Amino acid sequence: MSGLTEAELQGQVAIITGAGGGIGAAIARRLAQMGVLTFLCGRRRAALEGTAAAIVKAGGQAEIAECDVTDLGSVESVAALVERKSGRADILVNNAGVGSLAGPLHQMSPSSWEQVMNTNLRGVYYCMRSFAPMMIRAGRGHIVNISSLAGKNALPNGAAYAASKWGLNGLSYSVAEELRGHSIRVSVVCPGSVNTDLGPHQGKDPKKMLQPEDVAHVVAMLVTQEPRSFVSEILLRPTQKP
Q1: Position 187 in a domain
Q2: Is residue 242 part of a domain?
Q3: Which of 93, 126, 145, 215 is the most buried (most CB within 10 A)?
Q4: Which of 125, 126, 161, 173 is catalytic?
């Protein structure tokens, strides 16, 4: 990789939401492998402990931070924990997300709509609101928002999920402009279908689908960019259509 070396990432601190499994766990493992202290955020402590155990076994560093991204107080508590334990926040990966039940929008319950929007969009706002000030004080940082190709294309029978990801993309591009002057880079990653438990993948071959490690590789590339530039968006597709 060009840009920052793994030696230069030693001692940096990353906060990863949705780190109990799937893409979040893969990202946490990859960053820890690069010498980054990882704060694992999620609602299920047992799942976070599993990710942390794998990281420690591989020689990395991990801290568990139970967190519900839809609750501002919960996110602010994690930010206070990170500030107290490390005094810095170099990388924020907003990965926590939920899918939506397949079906037309007019049949979707308001409570299901709120769950999707609160997790996929409001939660990212809460995390950036809580951690960006730490980055601004340091004059550096990288925020990576995990979106979806559903944020670029129509998704019939998944309109709420698509809306949340289209919104996340617009949020990311706009905040990137707000934070550029502070040397904080904001990137959005839009993968196609990934082989996780997030949503239904009927009729798709899991072996041909993107794997969580593919997304983790992209995040590793993003945080090792040359300081003078940043990639604002990555569209990630499998080599073969699943």
Answers
A1: yes
A2: no
A3: 93
A4: 161
Give yes or no: 125 in active site. no
102 vs 107: CA distance, rounded Å: 10
pTM of the model: 0.94
* Count of domains forming the chain: 1
35 vs 127: CA distance, rounded Å: 23
CATH code of the domain covering residue 61: 3.40.50.720
| DSSP notation for the chain | --SS-HHHHTT-EEEEETTTSHHHHHHHHHHHHTT-EEEEEES-HHHHHHHHHHHHHTT-EEEEEE--TT-HHHHHHHHHHHHHHTS---EEEE-------SS-GGGS-HHHHHHHHIIIIIHHHHHHHHHHHHHHHHT-EEEEEE--GGGTS--TT-HHHHHHHHHHHHHHHHHHHHHGGGTEEEEEEEE--BSSSSS--TT--TTTSB-HHHHHHHHHHHTTS-TT----EEEE--SS--
pLDDT tens-digit series, residues 34-90: 999 999 999 999 999 999 999 999 999 999 999 999 999 999 999 999 999 999 999
Contact predicate 5/228, CB 8 Å: no
